[in-house]
Amino acid sequence: MHYVYEFIPHEIETMQEYIDYIFDEVWCKAPSRQYRITLFNKNTELKAIITNNRFLATKTGKLFVDQIKAIYAVFKTLSQNDIDRLARWFKANNHIEALCGNQPGEDPVTYEELKQYHHNLAVKLEVFYKFLWNSNIFSLQAIKSRIGKISDHYSKFILKNTERICPFCGIHRIKGEFNSKREDYDHYLPKDIYPFNSVNLKNLAPTCMECNRSYKSAKDPLRDLSGSRRKTFYSYMAMKPPINIELHFLNGIVNLIPDNLDLRISCEGHEEEVQAWREIFSLDERYKAIYLDKHTTNYWFMQIEEMAINKGYLIQEALEELNRYARHSPLQEINFLKVPFLEACEKNNFFGSYSIR
Predict the structure, then answer these.
(1) Radius of gyration of the chain from its Cα atoms, rounded to whole angstroms
(2) What gap in Å lies between CA 337 and CA 265, rounded to an integer?
(3) CA distance 290 to 337
(4) Closest Cα partner for 59 from 127, 150, 131, 148?
(5) Distance between CA atoms of 240 and 334, rounded to whole angstroms?
(6) Cα gap 87→30, rounded to integer Å
(7) pLDDT, tens digit, for every residue of 111-139?
C-alpha cells in the first residue's frame, strides 16, 4: 500500500455488535432453548428492531428475521463440538488484522470449506451475510435511527483521511467532501469467500472503482494462487509501509513492450505483503501500461526539457529536483512512477544534454 487509512470509529459498528449478539447469544445457544423473543433480552436495541412493526412490514426486515430463525433451526441440530468449532471460525474471520498478518492460530474459514463441513448451514449463512451488505437494511428507519448511515461514516472518514488518491493503486482519485457521490467500500476479505465479516468495518475500506471492481474484485488476499496462506497489507495497519519502486529496461528503450520492463517494488521487511499487493491489484500490468502510454511519458520528457532549457539544468539536476517533489508528494502526478521511469531513461543515455549553460 502507498499509505494506510486511519480507522474511524462510528455508530455504524453497532451493526457488527448486533451480528455478534445473534451469533453468540442466539444461534450458539439454540440446542438448549426454543426460539423466542426473550433470547434478545440482553440486547434491548436489537430486540426493539426485530419487534418493530414497521421494520417487519418491509420485505428486508421480514427477511432479516426469517433468516435468523432459519439459521437458528439448523444450529439447534448441532452438537456442542460443532458449535464450538463454528464459534472459533466466527471469531477468527473477524480478526481482520491478525488474518492479514497470518498470525499463528488464526485460521479463517471459507464458504467452500464450510459447505464441506455442513452444506445446508453454509448456504444459509452465505445468503444471510451477503444480504446484510447487499440489501437496503442499513437504510431502514429502525436501523439507521440507531446506528447512523454509511454515508455519514464516509463523510467523517474522508475528513480524517485527507489523501484523495487510492492507497491500493496510487493512480486514481478517491471522492472527497466536495463530491456528491462516494466510493464503494471494498470488502478486503471478499464477502463472496469469507463468512461472518460482511459488515465488519475493519474489513471495509473506500477503494477506487478500478481497484475494487476491475482488478481486485473477489481475489483472496489471504491465499496465493496455490492456495497457501500468506501475509498481506492491512488497510488500517499502524505503520506506513515505505514503498520503493525501481524500473529497468531489459532491451533498451526503443519499441518498449511489457516484457521489456523490469519493475521492482519493494518494502523492507514486508516482501510477502508486497507480492500479495502486486498480485491482488494487478499492479505490474497497470503500472507498465502507464509506462507504455506515450502521452504520459512524453509529458514527463517535456518536464525534463523545460528544466534543461528554461533553468539551464543538467539532466541529473532535473532528476534530483523531481525526486524532491516525489519524496514530498509521491502520489501527486504519479510521481512514484514518474521518477523511476526518468531515472531508467537517464541510465540508458536517452536524454542527451539539454543544458544551455
Answers:
(1) 25
(2) 11
(3) 9
(4) 131
(5) 18
(6) 13
(7) 999 999 999 999 999 999 999 999 999 99
Phi, psi of 56 (to 5 degrees): -70, -20
Whether the CA torsion 235, 94, 212, 280 is positive or negative: it is positive
Pick from 308, 287, 213: which is nearest to 243 by CA?
287
- The single-letter code of the amino acid at 230 is R
Number of helices followed by number of strands (H, E) in the chain: 16, 4
Strand segments (E) across 53-150: none
Confidence of residue 354 (pLDDT cuts 50, 70, 90): very low
Helix (H) or strand (E) holding 109: none
pLDDT band at 350 (very low <50, low <70, confident <90, very high): confident
Amino acid found at 267: C
Look at strands 261-266 and 204-206 and give their pairing. Answer: unpaired
- Give just the sign of the alpha carbon dihedral 326, 330, 334, 338: positive
> For 282, phi and psi rounded to 5 degrees?
50, 45
- What is the DSSP annotation of 37-76? GGGGTT-HHHHHHHT-HHHHTSHHHHHHHHHHHHHHHHHT
Residue among 5, 276, 342, 9 nearest 165 (CA) = 5
Sequence spans of domains, the chain: 11-204, 244-347
> Residue 107 — φ and ψ, nearest 5°?
-115, 100
Determine contact, residues 96/203, Cβ cutoff 8 Å. Answer: yes
Region 61-78: mean pLDDT is: 98
In tens, the pLDDT along 305-323 reads: 888 888 888 888 988 998 8
Enumerate residues 6+ apart whose C-beta is below 8 A from 9. Answer: none
